[in-house]
Amino acid sequence: MTGVRQPQRRAFLAGGLVTTAALITGCSSKTDGTPSAGPAASATGASATPTTRPDSPWTAFARLMDGNERWVDGTLEHPDRDPERRELVSQKQDPYGVILSCIDSRVPPELLFDTGLGDLFVLRTGGQVVGPVVTGSVEYGPLTSGTPLVVVLGHQRCGAIDAAYKALSDGKTLPGNLQAISDALRPAYRETVKSKHPDPVDAMIRIHVKQTSAALRSNKDLAPLVAKGDLAVVSAYYSLDTGKVEVLTGAPTA
After folding, report:
1. Is 137 within a domain?
2. Alpha-carbon distance 182 to 170, whole Å?
3. Whole-model pTM?
4. CATH number at residue 218
5. Are the CB atoms for 8 and 69 separated by under 8 Å?
6. Number of compact structural domains in the chain
7. Residues with Cβ within 8 Å of residue 242, at least 6 apart in sequence
8. Is 121 domain-assigned?
9. pLDDT in tens, 82-126
10. Strand pairing category for 245-249 and 232-238
11. Are 185 and 193 in contact, with CB atoms under 8 Å apart?
12. How does pLDDT run across 206-235, given as a tens digit for each residue?
């Protein structure tokens, strides 16, 4: 890249509608929330200077989705990955997003959103299932530093959900603590079997991330932040085939 990426798209609304929006680039410590464009990428592809941290659900969401667009089309900027950024965040972090995703090796959030050091809190569990510790970890950013965005990210061909679907369908128990993952996915399985789907596993993946995001959005600690417009909790689906993130529910608006 020889210059700053110009505005191209607004983020997806629920259902995948795409409109136009300004790119919000980079990330640094929390400021007054006014987005500012970062400098041109260096010869190594890393940003030379960190830029303003998004401080609203919309600006955080727009930055993530623009990063995913770069991932899809191969125009990566690798923001916030230089020594200056490392020094800046060494004493204090202020991420603008929380990503709850699967452990799958093909779904690394920092890469598929083209982000850098200190930009995101990332939690990864099998099938992005939650429990009290995981929920507490999701809450950490919004409750302690005002992180304005949570994304629950499912993905195509999820092995954990595929295994749970088959085990639940056959009435079998998975080995070891894998059964705990299957148990956590039972509500999504029940919802899936209520209707006939040509690909029930894929349907279960989508249902599960919607259920998880809805539960987080309405929990007693996060719900007040959502109601005030200080936090958005988004459910999304990542395509292994295309690299594209499809937003399912909860997308904020400008």
Report:
1. yes
2. 12
3. 0.81
4. 3.40.1050.10
5. yes
6. 1
7. 72
8. yes
9. 999 999 999 999 999 999 999 999 999 999 999 999 999 999 999
10. antiparallel
11. no
12. 999 999 999 999 999 999 999 999 999 999
